[in-house]
Amino acid sequence: MTNTLHRQGTRESLIRDYVIFLHPARGINRDGSGEKVRRFLEMALEEGPVNVGTAGRNLYTVDDVRQLVQAVDDEATTVAATFSDPEKLRRLVKRLKEADLGISVNISGLADVVDEILRSQGLVRHSIEHSLGILGRTERLPSQQVLELTTMCGHGMISHNHARKMIDWVKLGKLTPARAARYLARPCVCGAFNVDRAEEVLARAKELG
Amino acid sequence: MKIDQNKCVGCGNCVPVCSMGVISVERGRVTVNENECVECNTCYRTLRNERRNPLLVRAIRWGLGHVSLAYDPEPDVCPTGALMPLQLAWPRSLRAVFSDPTIKHPSTGVGGRGTEEIKSNDVTGRLRAGDIGLVVELGRPGLGTRFRDLQSVAQALAEAGVRFEARNPVTHLMSDPATGTLREDVLDEKVMSAIIECRTDLEHLPSVLATLQEAARHIDTVISAGVSARCGSRGEVPYVAAVEGCGFALSLNSKTNLGLGRPLFAETSPVAETPA
């Protein structure tokens, strides 16, 4: 899920944007991991995420969140939960350490905040990955405002045109920022799209006119 | 993706949803530019099928038009279910495999873009102390890439001496991993994005990054690049000075492996081999 690495935005915006995901490793601890993955999802849901993704569905494409947990089978690969409140994330990390599921856990978010959360729970980060930015034909890319929305779905399922349309409709008063953010969340199957943050970006776009 | 022309009512909801911007409305019907479509199935998955009768919808639309009103369905529906994912043959099937995150890559068993990166490094040990991982994702964000562009970057990186990650879907398409050359039959296929994963070390990182910058000048798309490593015993990040010395700014955000996987890979043991 390189996807969660390249989210665009200022520190003030990214400080409310964390994706935590569980990744069973093929040939090592994936076989029979379904129960552990479901346990992770249950704990994540109890902490109040803004999105969750598993088995091609997210919080905004199911009628009942229990469907997300039930959809996990023993072939599950990565499942993710997205938080806008770092304190909720801290509580989940504490619970995951205690639960000792034995499956790799990763967090995407502000590096210093994540490091502080880990240290507060007596953990030291094992491995780390940073974005080096975007190279190549950057002149083909849309505005920063659009990229802040679309890069929250790292698989690229949210198109630049979809983001532009939602920005336009919010500016025209056809949709509230909250409703537009939920429409944008639908294509992001991995659940990494932060609906709270999208709502903030859309509201800011409306203010700027 | 195909559009069932007997069902399509030309509402245009699928046009902005298309990840590649290759759906358009012509003479009241929607068409897909198949050469540019990456078969991500986003339109099919995102738009709810309302299962309305096309004749009825067209009649309503025609009637509304006569009183200067627009037929304006909710933006997340296809009123008549006109979108039709296709059974794809090789090599076009690669488009869906690399673009639709609900499909697991046959070569790695991983969904999304099929890469492990550092996600399970605590148990696989694929990046050890001293290794620097590079994750070079072509086509992202939102432009897509042809494998021909990817090959030119891979070949440049190979000349710079990187080692390509064996358990990576792009490496599986290489006819010659020593030179970064891909199979000829895949070069014109377009995908949402594809990730070259490779390794170097701190000493060679500056020359590899310079090579990457130069290679990026000769492609028709964008690259989202990332760098990764095993942290030090106190959580130190080994590549900060080297990367910043090359003129790159590290992102504020990062992906962090917490080290909670078991059995924890021991640096003294051989690299864990994952069955293909």
Short description:
The complex is a heterodimer of chains A (209) and B (276). Chain A is built from nine helices and six strands.
Account of the protein in words:
The complex is a heterodimer of chains A (209) and B (276). Chain A has 209 residues and is an alpha+beta fold. Chain A has nine helices and six strands. Chain A has a five-stranded antiparallel sheet. In chain A, a hairpin with a 2-residue loop joins strand 2 and strand 3. In chain A, helix 4 crosses helix 5, helix 6 crosses helix 7 and helix 7 packs across helix 9. Chain B folds into two domains: 2-84, Alpha-Beta Plaits (2-Layer Sandwich), CATH 3.30.70.20; 102-245, no CATH class. Chain B is built from nine helices and 15 strands. In chain B, helix 6 (147-159) runs antiparallel to helix 8 (205-216). Strand 6 of chain A pairs antiparallel with strand 14 of chain B, so a sheet runs across the interface.
Order of helices and strands of chain B: EHEEHEHEEHHEEHEHEEEEHEHE
Largest interface pair: A-B, 79 and 90 residues
Which of globular, elongated, flat, extended, rod-shaped describes the shape of chain B? Answer: elongated
Q: What fold name stands as the CATH topology of the largest domain in chain A? A: Alpha-Beta Plaits
What is the CATH class designation of the largest domain in chain A? Alpha Beta
Q: How many domains in all of chain B?
A: 2
